[in-house]
Amino acid sequence: MGYAKTAMEGRLQIFSGNANRVLAQEIASYLNINLGRAVVGTFKNGETRIKVEENVRGSDVFVLQPTCTPVNQNLMELLFLIDALRRASAARVTAVVPYYGYAKQEKKTTGREPISAKLVANLIDVAGADRLLTMDLHSPAIEGFFDIPVDHLQAGPLLAEYIRELNLPDPVVVSPDAGGVGRANSFRERIGAGLAIIAKQRPQPDVAEILEMVGEVDGKTAIIVDDMISTGGTLAEAAKSLRARGALGVYACATHGVFAGDAISIIADSPLVETITTNTIPLTAKCSDARIRIISVAPLFAEAIMRIHKDLSLSALFT
Ligand code: R5P
After folding, report:
1. Residues of the chain with CATH 3.40.50.2020
2. Is the CB of 176 under 6 A from ligand 1?
3. 161 CB under 6 A from ligand 1?
4. What pLDDT band is residue 7 in, cutting at 50, 70 and 90?
């Protein structure tokens, strides 16, 4: 895919913070444009320093910045970039946040907790973003935390296409928790497979414990579908449990490779044959040791950006 420049597209500019410049560059290449020039650094006192170094007056500007680790740093870069672009008279600013951090804190699970995902949405609104373009929010309800339009892409079709091409024998798609059943169900419809559901609990934060499983996995190839891999505990425990119940092989597909702490070695040491994720978050070289395959979301984001810029429907991208 690639686009010829037109007069109108000359007004499209993409800027990036430091969170995932490789993805930003890849998207810009698909769109046949250069990344916008901006200093995104730090003052000696630790404060974030932003300076947009080209004219954006009247432009349709997209700011790419997943709010992955270092999450607070990346969030501040995003907010200050939006503010700088607004004050420099950009006509429209779209925050492109392929991975939306703080999304797991989208409700109170006990008293005296913040709803961090809502506060982050408020911050992006108040900074001056006109729209948000994102992918696979941990909870779709987060879309409603914004008062600006949200375009919510899915990696499911890309991941399913990869799995389909593997021609796995007797596949069954597995949701690793009750909250992911909708996602797993639409994945299984894409590849024509059965469905199994795991009941998971978290006895303490970041610890996953498999309680029960519904569905037939004996003698089948299991494909666990999730939105993110954080500590890797959910996938590793689910894979062990599936093998114990007779699954012949276990694969995993998850949009966001957060890979916190020892996640990569937990995945490497698990029974997972292959873990497929995307580049919404920049990943380390160690991924190949852990049988992790990365699928690029750049063409999809490039297409979405071009459609937003041209006021075209994005519906075709969601099917
Ligand atoms: C949970 O609700 C999510 O969908 C993922 O299952 C979870 O974030 C994975 O976390 P971890 O890799 O730490 O088990």
Report:
1. 8-154+298-318, 156-295
2. yes
3. no
4. very low
Ligand 1 atom nearest 206 alpha carbon:
13
End-to-end CA distance of the chain, in Å? 18
Q: How far apart are CA 304 and CA 298, in angstroms?
A: 10
68 sits in which H/E element: none
Proportion of the chain above pLDDT 90, given as a percent: 88
- Nearest C-alpha neighbor of 127 from the set 170, 173, 83: 83
Per-residue pLDDT of 221-278, as tens digits, reads 999 999 999 999 999 999 999 999 999 999 999 999 999 999 999 999 999 999 999 9
CB of 230 shorter than 6 A to ligand 1: yes
Q: Which of 69, 136, 227, 255 to mutate to test the pocket of ligand 1 (most atoms within 8 A of CB)?
A: 227
Find the helix packing angle between 116-127 and 71-87, rounded to 10°: 20
Catalytic residue among 5, 104, 200, 310: 200
Q: What's the pLDDT tens digit per position in 141-151?
A: 999 999 999 99
Question: Which numbered atom of ligand 1 lies nearest the CA of 226?
Answer: 4
Q: Is 200 a catalytic residue?
A: yes
What CATH fold (topology level) applies to the domain 8-154+298-318?
Rossmann fold (3.40.50)
* Domain 156-295: assigned CATH number: 3.40.50.2020
**What's the whole-model pTM score?**
0.94
Edge-to-edge strand order for the sheet containing 60-64? 12-16, 60-64, 92-97, 131-135, 150-153
Angle, helices 181-191/156-166, rounded to nearest 10 degrees = 50
